[in-house]
């Protein structure tokens, strides 16, 4: 009987602790309102973006397929679209289509860098409802490849600067506009810009590139829009698993063919996911958004010391965005075997794309993969490897500036750090600044996000205009 009383008392105490922690898990202080929206020529911003879209700046891994004339056409167009920028800013062209502008401020000791890329991915024009390079405006929507990724921010940065310069504004600190013409193919343009900063002894106090956006229905139990600012991005590596054999006729196979061996390795990898690591970007996101969620999820995120295993299980079983925040993910994307259905292949291979959690490393991932598959017949080779980025600070003026611009441009959204699961040019700034942030200045529906790199990419006019407003607000703080 005393033992039952002790157990019962312990359970009551545990429930009380859970309940109290949940009730105390309330939202923090709100970001102060900045004031009225800045004035600018909204129609002019749309026209400029449409003209950029009409330049077919499609990048390919095979550069022979690219049209250099279209890239130069866009560059030649810039002085006409943004005359005040070219009148006031220093413009430098670096190798591999890298463009760098410097807008001199009153001081130069804590400059900001605002990034975008003006190359786009290829299109299958037959699958589009509207011509992908027409820059067509219809029913409040601008159609075209690059309208979201990322000519919208390229235009917003330059149009905002052009507007402020025309109004006689001078920033407190230097502002650099850094643009790549080969981001979609991991081109070296952004590297040249970073090298230029290093050579000049310039350490940015704030770097902003593409990344999160203002989105809805991305966090359990939360209905209000979320402005997600990436404070780190996952690493990436492509692993190829290959098996060699003597080949032969399919009528007399050995117990395990190369494809069969690879299949077992594939299942082993999927059945043994990487362990969960609750790193700072995910933890800060759960802390910020969890406080505004419904009671059930507030209870979970207020008591992760108890429910972390539940979160881990949900991620492993359901996959998706929450799982990607928690662990290194493995997606098998390619496979190659025999050229004929009745021939055992002399070699077979499969490729997986891995996105590395900030707590993991390329070396550690390779060791774990070889341990999990446990088969010396399989050769594992790595390509295009990049380590996870460092984690940027959030308790600092640089974060406050970006967060304020987000909160005031999209009033009512909850601004939160998060972990970017894709790759961006900002990764090259890893050794240059601890204030690198990733935010695409747009509010996007799930349908709109699906058109990025897909068919029928398009942007609402108000979204493109609000991107300009965001940069106006940000630049006025720099």
Mean pLDDT: 95
User: Which structural class is indicated by helix and strand composition?
Assistant: alpha+beta
Form type: globular
Number of E-type strands: 17
The residue fraction in helices comes out at 25-40%
Put simply, the count of helices is 15
Uncertain regions spanning at least 5 consecutive residues: none
Radius of gyration: 25 Å
Strand content: 15-25%
- How would a crystallographer describe the biggest sheet? 8 strands, mixed
List keywords for this structure.
alpha+beta, 478 residues, globular, 8-stranded mixed beta sheet, 4-stranded antiparallel beta sheet, single chain, 23% strand
Model description:
With 478 residues, the protein is an alpha+beta fold. It is globular, with a radius of gyration of 25 Å. Strand 4 and strand 5 (141-143) form a beta hairpin. The relative contact order is 0.18. The model has no long low-confidence stretch (mean pLDDT 95). The protein contains 15 helices and 17 strands.
Task: Provide the fold topology.
Blueprint: H1 2-24, H2 42-53, H3 68-81, H4 83-88, E1 90-94, E2 98-103, E3 107-117, E4 137-138, E5 141-143, H5 151-166, E6 173-180, H6 189-200, E7 206-215, E8 226-233, E9 235-244, E10 248-249, H7 258-271, H8 280-290, H9 295-302, H10 304-318, H11 320-326, E11 329-336, E12 343-344, E13 347-356, H12 362-373, E14 379-386, H13 397-409, E15 414-420, E16 436-443, H14 446-450, E17 458-460, H15 461-475
Parallel strand pairs: 3-6, 3-7, 7-16, 8-15
Antiparallel strand pairs: 1-2, 2-6, 4-5, 5-17, 7-8, 9-13, 9-14, 10-12, 11-13
Helix pairs in contact: 1-9, 2-5, 2-15, 5-15, 10-11, 13-15
């Amino acid at each position: 009987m005393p033992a039952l009383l002790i157990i019962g008392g312990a359970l009551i105490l545990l429930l009380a602790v859970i309940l109290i922690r949940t009730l105390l898990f309330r939202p923090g202080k709100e970001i102060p309102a900045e004031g009225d929206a800045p004035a600018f020529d909204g129609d002019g911003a749309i026209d400029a973006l449409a003209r950029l879209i009409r330049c077919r700046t499609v990048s390919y891994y095979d550069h022979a397929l690219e049209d250099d004339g279209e890239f130069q056409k866009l560059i030649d167009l810039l002085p006409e679209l943004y005359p005040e920028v070219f009148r006031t800013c220093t413009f430098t062209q670096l190798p591999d289509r890298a463009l760098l502008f410097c807008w001199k401020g009153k001081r130069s000791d804590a400059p900001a860098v605002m990034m975008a890329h003006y190359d786009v991915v290829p299109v299958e024009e037959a699958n589009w409802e509207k011509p992908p390079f027409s820059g067509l405006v219809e029913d409040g929507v601008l159609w075209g490849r690059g309208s979201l990724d990322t000519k919208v921010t390229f235009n917003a940065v330059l149009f905002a600067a052009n507007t402020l310069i025309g109004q006689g504004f001078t920033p407190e600190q230097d502002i650099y506009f850094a643009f790549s013409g080969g981001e979609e193919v991991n081109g070296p343009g952004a590297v040249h810009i970073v090298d230029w900063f290093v050579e000049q002894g310039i350490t940015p106090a704030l770097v902003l590139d593409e990344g999160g956006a203002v989105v809805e229905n991305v966090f359990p139990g939360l209905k209000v829009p979320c402005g997600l600012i990436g404070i780190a991005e996952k690493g990436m590596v492509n692993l190829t698993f290959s098996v060699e054999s003597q080949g032969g006729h399919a009528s007399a196979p050995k117990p395990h063919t190369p494809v069969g061996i690879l299949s077992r390795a594939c299942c082993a990898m999927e059945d043994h996911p990487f362990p969960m690591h609750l790193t700072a970007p995910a933890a800060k996101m759960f802390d910020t958004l969890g406080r505004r969620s419904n009671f059930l999820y507030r209870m979970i995120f207020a008591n992760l010391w108890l429910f972390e295993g539940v979160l881990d299980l949900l991620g492993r079983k359901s996959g998706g965005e929450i799982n990607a925040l928690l662990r290194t993910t493995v997606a098998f994307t390619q496979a190659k075997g025999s050229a004929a259905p009745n021939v055992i292949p002399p070699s077979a291979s499969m490729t997986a794309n891995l996105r590395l959690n900030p707590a993991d490393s390329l070396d550690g991932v390779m060791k774990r993969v070889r341990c999990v598959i446990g088969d010396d017949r399989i050769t594992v080779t790595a390509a295009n490897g990049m380590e996870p980025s460092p984690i940027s600070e959030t308790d600092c003026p640089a974060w406050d500036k970006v967060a304020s611009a987000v909160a005031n441009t999209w009033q009512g959204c909850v601004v939160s750090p998060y972990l970017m699961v894709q790759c961006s040019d900002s990764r090259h700034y890893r050794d240059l600044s601890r204030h690198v942030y990733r935010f695409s200045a747009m509010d996007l529906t799930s349908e709109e996000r699906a058109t990025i790199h897909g068919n029928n990419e398009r942007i609402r006019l108000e979204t493109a205009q609000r991107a300009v407003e965001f940069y106006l607000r940000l630049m006025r703080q720099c």
